[in-house]
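Researcher: Quick test of sequence recovery. Tokens follow.
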């Protein structure tokens, strides 16, 4: 996969197709449900709405899901799978920490700006909807990403690639920039995704130049002119 590219997934598989492919059908149901929830919100999207969008009856939908909240958990886990496949796993092996962070930002932005990434959008928009063990499960997967960013920023500081900065502050500044994109970015707007990548990289990493090497101090005026001879 070329840098900056993400693998092509279909914008929306038909939940009514592939009866002989249970995994593919289930994935299509999750993608369709994600689209409905994105359009109407979790509270506004009824099981009936989701079933109709999937071409199923309510009873038919319940054959594939346990409950509405469990459906949301499955969508969020599915979205995290997509994120880890398309972003995190693609950058873990990059040795240079600054390049790792820049590439991670690029891939994350491209993922969020692609119109089919509704499952990822739901992770961002419905993050507080889950409760109990379901919320803990998703939060644990999110924290893995935060730790990755913190460690990468700390490594870049140690290597002198960026100025000293609190890794936690840097990690959440990174996340704050990237994870809010879905609220305002429009693919048909004036800013395209590659431009957005470049500008956001410049904004964040351009503000973290490495410290300048200390100027060598003159040798005490040539050692006091050799102790005035």
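Model:
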């Amino acid at each position: 996969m070329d840098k900056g590219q993400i693998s092509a997934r279909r914008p929306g598989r038909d939940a009514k197709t592939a009866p002989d492919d249970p995994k593919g059908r289930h994935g299509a149901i999750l993608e369709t449900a994600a689209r409905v929830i994105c359009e109407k919100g979790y509270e506004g999207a009824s099981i009936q709405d989701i079933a109709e969008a999937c071409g199923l009856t309510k009873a038919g939908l319940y054959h594939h899901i346990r409950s509405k909240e469990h459906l949301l958990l499955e969508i969020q886990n599915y979205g995290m799978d997509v994120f880890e496949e398309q972003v995190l796993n693609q950058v873990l092996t990059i040795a240079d920490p600054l390049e790792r962070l820049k590439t991670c930002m690029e891939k994350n932005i491209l993922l969020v700006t692609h119109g089919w990434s509704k499952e990822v959008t739901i992770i961002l928009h419905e993050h507080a909807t889950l409760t109990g063990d379901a919320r803990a499960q998703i939060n644990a997967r999110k924290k893995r990403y935060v730790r990755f960013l913190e460690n990468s920023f700390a490594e870049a500081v140690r290597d002198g690639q960026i100025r000293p900065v609190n890794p936690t502050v840097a990690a959440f500044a990174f996340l704050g920039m990237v994870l809010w994109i879905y609220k305002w970015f429009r693919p048909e707007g004036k800013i395209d995704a590659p431009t957005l990548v470049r500008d956001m990289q410049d904004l964040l990493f351009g503000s973290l130049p490495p410290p300048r090497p200390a100027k060598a101090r003159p040798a005490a005026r040539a050692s006091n002119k050799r102790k005035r001879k």
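The chain has eleven helices and no strands.
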